[in-house]
Amino acid sequence: QTGFVSQPLSPRAAKQRESLIRGATTLAQRMNPRVKVEFAERLFGGGAALERSSGRSTGGKMEAVAGFHDPARGLIKVALDADDAQVLATTAHEAWHSIEPLLTSQEMATLVAAYPAGEGRSQGETIAYAFERWIGDRFAAATPPKAKGIFARVLRFIRDLGQMLRGRGFRKAEDIFKAAEAGEIGARGSNVAPIK
């Protein structure tokens, strides 16, 4: 059994974080115009969905969570008890879940090759966390050290070359993430249940 409980957002807290809420909502609705976005002071979850996401058993206990996607209601809910960058990254993660079913089989194959499932997480969660990290890096205020940037470019080149040699073409995981952020994937169809 899956459950989520939220601590409502007080009017004062909503006013204090108004620009963050507006920015996070804009990000989610640019990715998927059909998704509803709500915010809470804190969120708690438990059960199968949390276990798929975290990759560990919770023993039926409720734990604090950063956000969740409810496909039946077309809803994303995000906790505001983190810094702004993390709230935006969590919003992107949950919005990703809302567009997963709209990915083509070729896009999914590219993402699976780039981000194989691990740590007890489902393939969908592994890719959603990769997208969350990608968004976080894009919105990070700090510039990575030059050496780290060079190393990351070399790794990207090797991964891209491997994808090309495996016949996946030149469409890279980063291209798919860019299309998701820009709303190109979300524009393909209706909000349906995510990949299991």
Give an overview of the whole structure.
- By secondary structure, this protein is α+β, with helices and mostly antiparallel strands.
- Helices cover 51% and strands 14% of the residues.
- It has helices spanning 11-16, 18-31, 48-54, 84-99, 105-114, 123-139, 146-165, 173-182, and strands at 3-7, 36-40, 42-46, 63-65, 67-70, 75-79.
- The strands form 2 sheets. A 3-stranded antiparallel β-sheet has the order 1-3-4, with helices on one face. It has a 3-stranded mixed β-sheet with strand order 2-6-5, with helices on one face.
- Helix 2 runs parallel beside helix 4 and helix 4 (84-99) packs across helix 6 (123-139).
- The longest helix is centred in the last third of the chain and has 20 residues, at 146-165.
- The chain starts with a strand and ends in a 14-residue tail after the last helix.
Rg over C-alpha atoms, rounded to the nearest angstrom: 17 Å
Structural class: alpha+beta
How do the strands line up in the largest sheet?
1-3-4
| Helix content estimate | 40-55%
Number of helices: 8
In short:
The chain has 196 residues and is α+β, with helices and mostly antiparallel strands. The protein has helices spanning 11-16, 18-31, 48-54, 84-99, 105-114, 123-139, 146-165, 173-182; strands spanning 3-7, 36-40, 42-46, 63-65, 67-70, 75-79.
Describe this protein with a few key phrases.
6 strands, three-stranded mixed sheet, alpha+beta, 51% helix, single chain, globular, 196 residues
